[in-house]
Amino acid sequence: MTVNVLVVDDSAFFRRRIKEILEKNSQIKVIAFADNGKDAVDKAVSLSPDVITMDYEMPQMNGISAVREIMGKKPTPILMFSSLTYEGARVTLDALDAGAVDYLPKSFEAMSGDPGSSATLLQEKVMSLVKRVKPRAAAPAPARAAAPAPSAAPAKSAPTARPAVGVKTAASGIIDDLKRNRPRLVLIGASTGGPVVLQKILSALPASYPYPILLVQHMPSTFTTAFAERLNRICQIQVKEAVDNDPIKPGVALLAPGGKQMLIDERGGCVHISDGNDKFQYKPCVDVTFGSAARSIKGRMLGIVLTGMGSDGREGCKLLKKDNAVIWTQDEDSCVVYGMPQAVEAAGLSNAVFSADDMARYLKDIG
User: Fold this and answer.
1) Number of helices (H) and strands (E), helices first, in the chain?
2) Could you say which of 39, 94, 102, 312 is catalytic?
3) How many domains does the chain have?
4) According to DSSP H, which parts of the chain are helical?
5) pTM as predicted
6) Is residue 137 in some structural domain?
7) What stretches in the chain show pLDDT beneath 70?
8) Is 272 a catalytic residue?
9) CA distance 71 to 76
């Protein structure tokens, strides 16, 4: 199978270099270039590429506007290039809201020399997007919290979780059980596609939400700072990037900082932020935070694994289940990449499989 890629960038150097890197993989072919957003939209519609790489700063139409138009006219997996700055993070989060699937840092140094692992990562991202990603339509920018309440929907029969390995109870039973045996802590892990789903879930929760929440989203450090600020701005609960010794308390969601590991202290009262070591592929790592919670928190917990590549979260969920934790996973249809949830389900650890919309509704319901 050949993956056809449209490369969008106003720099001729970067267009040429991206083509060289991608085509080192014999399964990838760059079929066209665009040097501005308007041209990108036209070529996306006329050429139907499998994947688009997109820059932000371009003449005529910027990358975010181009993403939004493409997702409206010809939904296609789009990989954004972004700078590793606070402003780059803010722009990238806007692009994800507009419908982009994932992002990579854009580095002149990496592109001009031998990019090594950066080149491999770019090729892997492109291949995984076309193999496993279902393009999603652009979301209306951040009016998610103002969406109609679930109670306004037409009446329907009691919902049931989609069957999966280890799922034995109807969703209504799982929710009732969590209302009776309230969790001490909610843990949520995500990777590719996670920012949009986390925004959907957290913005549905009331300011009086009775549980503390720990969030692990695979992101660089500047991105988690901007993401926490964005979530705090649009959510009723408080969301903040975690710092060392932050207390774990109801109605507050602590986001693990990029490039660090978030652990729970032995008494379960606060988080510790650590540089960690090279044993784990990800910083932050879902397995690290979930595993730390399993060792420190005495009592029931709710662990949630959302969209993302790979299997991070599976080992942490195994440890949580030993203490009778309840595990929810996101369903394949609503995932951008069905990797992490699938790994948890295949291991027989998931108590329920929910869509992103149902996840938001049920998490609110147990409050």
Assistant:
1) 13, 14
2) 312
3) 2
4) 12-22, 37-47, 63-73, 86-98, 108-112, 117-132, 171-180, 194-202, 221-234, 286-296, 314-321, 340-346, 356-365
5) 0.85
6) no
7) 107-116, 131-170
8) no
9) 7
